[in-house]
Amino acid sequence: MGEDTARRGEGIAGVRKLLRHFPASVTYPVALAFLACTEVLIRLGGPHENLSLALLLGVCTTLPLTFVLGADRALPARAGAAVAVTSAGVLALAPFRTLTLAGVAAQLASVYWLGRAGAPRLSGILVVPYVVLALVSQDDLTTRVMAVLVATLASAAAATGITHHVRSAALAHSATERAFADTLLAHAARGERARIARELHDVVAHHISMIAVQAETARLTTAGLPADGATRLLAIGDTARTALTEMRRLLGVLREDADTAVNRRPQPGLRQLLELVDESRDASGSRTRLIVSGPVAPLDPGIEVTAYRIVQEALTNARRHAPGAAVDVELRYAGDDLAIRVRDNGPGPASPTAGHGLLGMRERAATVGGTLRTGPAHGGGFLVEAWLPVRAEALV
Q1: Which of 90, 136, 225, 295 is deepest in the core (most CB within 10 A)?
Q2: Could you give phi then psi for residue 376, rounded to 5 degrees?
Q3: In whole angstroms, what is the distance from residue 143 CA to residue 94 CA?
Q4: pLDDT tens digits, residue range 94-141?
Q5: Cα–Cα distance, 392 to 395 (Å, whole number)
C-alpha cells in the first residue's frame, strides 16, 4: 500500500509539473472541456445515439475560451471566440438540452473578459440570445429556467468586466494627466532656472568681476600703498574670484537639462574638497595637504556642505592672515562625528576678536548640531576644529 501511495503521489506531481508548462489560457479551457465531457457522460448514463453530438457541443462550449483568455490575442480573435462559445451554448441548450455547468462557466468567463478587453457592446450583445431563448421557450420550463439563469449571470459578469475596463481606463487617463502636468512643471522649472542663470551671469557675475579687477588694479597701480593695504586688496581679489568660481558652478547646475542624470545640488560636498585644496594651493603658492582618516562613507548632504564651507572659510582665512604658510586639512570619520581640523603654521590673526568668517563657521556648525573651536594652535599657527554629527539620531 505504501508503494501504491508513493506512485500515486509521483503521478500527481508529474501532472502538476506538466501543467506548469502550459499557460492558464490553455489549462483552464482544457479542464472545463474535460469536466463538460464528464458531465455529459454522467447525464446520458452510457452509450446513446446523441452521445457524439453531446460531447462535441461540450467541447465547443469550452475550448474556444482559449482564444478569449489569451492576452496576446487581437480583439477581433477574442470576439470571434466569444461568439463561438455563445453560439455553441445556445445550440446545446435549445434543441439538445446539454448545456453543462462547465459550458456555463465558459460563457460567463467569455463575456467578462470580453468586457474587460474593451468590447462592452459585444459583451452585452452576447447575453441577448439567452434572453430571446427564455422568451420563446414557453413549453419547456427547464430550458427557460436555464436560459434565464445564464442570462442573469452573464449580465452580471459582463457588467463586472466592463466596470474593470472603465476603471482601468480612468486610472490610465489620470496617470497620463499627471505625467503631462509633471512635464509642464519640469518645463516651467527649466525656464525659471534659465532666467535666473541669465540674471546671475549678466548682473551679479559682472559686478563681482569688476570688484576683482578693480581690487587687483588698485593693488598694482596705487603708489605708496602700505603692505597691509596691499594684502587686503589681494584678499578682496581672491574672495571675488572664489565667488565667481562658486557662481560658475551654480550657473552650470541651473543650465543643466532636466533629463540628465547628474547631481543637481548647487552646493558642493566632501568630494570636492580635493579640488578646493588644489585651488588654495595654486592661489597662495603654499603647501596645503588633505589628510583623511577613518572609514570614508557618504554623509547627509547638509553635513557635507557644512563641512565643505567650514574648510573653505578656514583656507580663506589662512590665505588672508598667513600668506605663504603651510596648511593641513584633516578629516576624521568617527562612529558618530565627523571631525574637521584645519591648521596653519602662520602667526595667526592679528586681532583676538572673531571676524565674520569665524562667526559664520560657528553658525554653520551649530545649524547641524555641531560645535566649532578656533584659536592659536600648540606650537604656533592657528587652528580651526569642528565636530559635526553624522548619525540620524544625532541630527535630531
Answers
A1: 90
A2: -65, 140
A3: 7
A4: 777 778 888 888 888 888 888 888 888 888 888 888 888 888 877 778
A5: 5
SS3 labels along the chain:
CHHHHHHHHHHHHHHHHHHCCCCHHHHHHHHHHHHHHHHHHHHHCCCCCCHHHHHHHHHHCCCCHHHHHCCCCCHHHHHHHHHHHHHHHHHHHCCCCCCCHHHHHHHHHHHHHHHHCCCHHHHHHCCHHHHHHHHHCCCCHHHHHHHHHHHHHHHHHHHHHHHHHHHHHHHHHHHHHHHHHHHHHHHHHHHHHHHHHHHHHHHHHHHHHHHHHHHHHHHHHCCCCCHHHHHHHHHHHHHHHHHHHHHHHHHHHHCCCCCCCCCCCCCCCHHHHHHHHHHHHHHHCCCEEEEEECCCCCCCHHHHHHHHHHHHHHHHHHHHHCCCCCEEEEEEECCCEEEEEEEECCCCCCCCCCCHHHHHHHHHHHHCCCEEEEEECCCCCEEEEEEEECCHHHHC
Residues 314-327 pLDDT 10s: 888 887 778 778 89
Distances 275 to 245, 288, 322 between C-alpha atoms, Å? 12, 12, 21
What are the tens digits of pLDDT across the range 213-250?
788 778 878 888 888 888 888 888 888 878 877 776 77
